[in-house]
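Appendix B: complex inputs.
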Amino acid sequence: MMLQIENLHAQIGDNEILRGVNLEVAAGEVHAIMGPNGSGKSTLANVLAGHEAYDITGMVHFENEDLLALSPEDRAAAGLFLAFQHPVEIPGVGNLYFLRMALNSVRRRRGLEELDVMGFLALARERMKLVEMDESFMSRSVNEGFSGGEKKRNEILQMTILEPKLAILDETDSGLDIDALRIVAGGVNALRRPDRAMIVITHHQRLLDYLVPDRVHVMAAGRIVRSGDKDLALELEEHGYADLSQETASDRPASVGATP
Amino acid sequence: MTTVTSTATSTPEGRTGAISTVAELLSRLGLPSHGRGPTWLTQARHESAEWAITRGFPTLKDEDWKYTRLGPLLDVPFERAAAGADHRISPATVDALTIDVANTRLVFVNGFFAPELSSITELPEGVTVTNLASVLAEGGAVLEPFFAHPFSESDHAFTALNTCLFEDGAFVHLPADTHVTMPIELVYLSEAQGSPVVSAPHSLILAGPGSRVAVIETYAGISGNTTCTNAVTQVVLEEGAHVEHYKIQNELDTGFHLALLDVRLGPDARFSSGSVALGSKIARNEVRVRLEGEGAGVSIDGLYLPRGDQHHDNPVLIEHAAPRCTSRQLYKGIADERGHGVFNGHIIVWPGAEGTDASQTNKNLLLSDHAEIDTRPRLEIFTDDVKCTHGATVGALDEDALFYLRSRGVPHEKARALLTYAFAREVMDLIPSASLRAHVDTLVAGRLATEDGAGGVPL
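Resulting structure:
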């Protein structure tokens, strides 16, 4: 199993956001996580990527390694990637410079040779085509002045360059028009491989038309309350999350729904 | 980032050193001999000495000095720098400090002209670039108005002491409509081989109507005992003159640097100045600008990077004294370890200066719990119909940006260095000359580098 999450709790101060998440993701699989706002989806993504704002208990194993013991940069080197819901703008840091620094940091820790400027440029150009990104973006500061769609494409570009084993896409589809969605989904699909897994957090069935998931999970109130195959997403699209509130109220054990 | 209003936390401390009054200091240092220079100068020196003695040293109770303690300076048994002292500075050392060896450069060692380290390239007809002492030796009548003048409200003991003590400095004069295309570099080196020394260079840049020039001042400490640089640079721009100015302060970390840049602008003149403060134990980089002619404009930018026990104070006074002038300021501070940065920005819009457009921005980054920033924007407006904006922030590195970089594999220390450098970059991007920008960038990136040398110079 590539990723194993057991009884994961996360809180900030007295506010408990994750209340016992259980999830297993095998290599080659695409898992979708859906659920209403505030159900803890983004927190789960941030906790997995190593955000330090949370008090965390529980167990997360990534390729049999204790993920929670690793720093964010070590998780990246180990092969984890989070495409942020709201990519931060970093004025003064050039996009290309940042990407090369990121890739070489990761390569160094994976025991690979660092890429020189020319080698990196060749790789970046190839991957930029994949997400139909204009080269002028490379000379700009990271995400600064980018439109919502451009920021999301930049996330996918970073993913295609860093080539993670496990990619978590946090609402990468939100705010995208249909063309941008197609481009983003194309970039993601190009990365699908038997030894790579993805967790796709989304509000909408729409993205899942392009990225067909192996499993669909529903989060509510900090737990995974239902799991199923891709048809679950269609069902949710039709009925919404209204039924879930009852399941949450009944405090249904999360592990039941989450076991694949 | 949050806006803060800072308050003084320090109290005047007891001065245990040898010096407690200006008179004591002057009697130890002594004035330059009467034989040197014209009578008016001797008179100006005596008047300045008297004024400084009466006025006394600034204290923490003085509005413009409330964060800068002079105790550590007055404790040092300084002597006046001697003329013609043997220095061990090689041309290669100076080359490394200059932006382009092809530029005209005047080098001063402890406030005295060092012709063997200087070079003057071909200049347009009528343009004078020389040292002040040689102008004084010929009578120096042109200089009199710049030294023999009444003291202003903002003068203090150190500006007066500069008049008492200076022996040399740069003299740059551009007649009407002359354009000097290559920058002129003024390099002031401090070196104390024996006792601690005070130097007092005084430079004068006179830009005639419609003239253009760029001047880069570099202050650098070489090695040895403690030095104190008490420098004044005066710039006068006549109608339509354009002057670009930049200052690099890279004194030894044990040294003291008390400098004044005094600028006056005539109608439609343009002055832009940037500075970077890297060195000194205590540095005060004062700028005073007086917009005297209608339609004149200035931009004054600064970057200060105190760390260790360094103290970098930046008092900036902009006086709008004529209609429709513009002034813009961007000062950024990065304080690390126990470093202390001060921005004291004062804008005065005098009666009659309608149509004034003034903006002042001060942003600061605190990298350590023990670092300190004090920022005091002050606006005094005596005219209607003006546009004045100001803002000040003090904050830590953006945690979200830090997490973003780390989540991509960039190690924590490198991510911090990259974001710190990015913070500084906004000011460096305002430097118009590419070669100067690259030079400053190298200094700043080197300063902010992590141990493995990743300063974050962009591709």
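The longest strand of chain B covers residues 212-224.
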